[in-house]
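Work Package 3 (structural annotation) set out to generate three-dimensional models for the target panel prioritized at the project kickoff. During this period the team completed the workflow that converts sequence records into discrete structure tokens, so that structures can be stored uniformly alongside our sequence database. As a representative example, we reproduce one entry of 273 residues exactly as it appears in the project archive.
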Amino acid sequence: MKLDPVKALLGTLLVMGFASPVVMAANAQDENDIQNAIIRFKAGIAANPNNPQTRLSLGRAFLTSGDIAGAEEQFKAAIKLSPENSEGYMGLARTLIRKNDVKGSLDALNKAVKLDPENSDVHYKLGQVLNRDNKTEESIAEFRQAIKLNGQNAAAHRDLGASLGMKGDLDGQIVEEKKALALAPNDSDALFYIGTAYAMKQDTQNALIHLQRSVELDKKNPEAFRILAGVTASSGKFPEAIKYAQTACDLAPDNKQCKTTLQKIQAASDKAK
């Protein structure tokens, strides 16, 4: 059987891979609120430097503001003051992963798990970092444990689905993403992951529905626009596909995959004329 050239184009674009959506920057009001919180927590520490909860709060505020060194200092201080509290290790793990210190983050999370083994969020975060460390099977086990402890953990369902998809289990991925979306219907990441899974299965209709909704909610994700461009092109809607691909390039001008996608769709469009 001769392969439909348009579907072949979609297949080519999909095997180029996809990355996690980018995080949108906080708006000016959010930044102002964070700075005000930092001032309050610093004042609280000046009044009582031995309060671990204030240290944790300041660490989280620093992390949100992008002050990684400040966050690390506060989380370590909180751990020293209250070593039995898993929150300090959780905060430190989040900080270290921002520094690309995967080993340090895993060490902190393993300590958090020992302190709080029934905490779904701890297992979920450990699963995320294990996934970052390319330990897919271990990450899947942690996501499953997070869900076992809390079936309402939408993020764990979402990331379990993404991990299953990376293994090629697209049906398993779709099942988990549906569970995530039932709990959090406006999760743009879950919509992106399930849309990509449907695209890989060449289920164009469902892929379009979910990817279009994903980019409506997150207009800063170049990969969602890139995959949406490929799916749209596979249905022969080349003008729309080119717009989506161009948006992906505008959002990520240095991304070679986005540029290649645009070029391939433009070539397919010219050929179809």
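The domain at 118-209 is CATH 1.25.40.10 (Serine Threonine Protein Phosphatase 5, Tetratricopeptide repeat).
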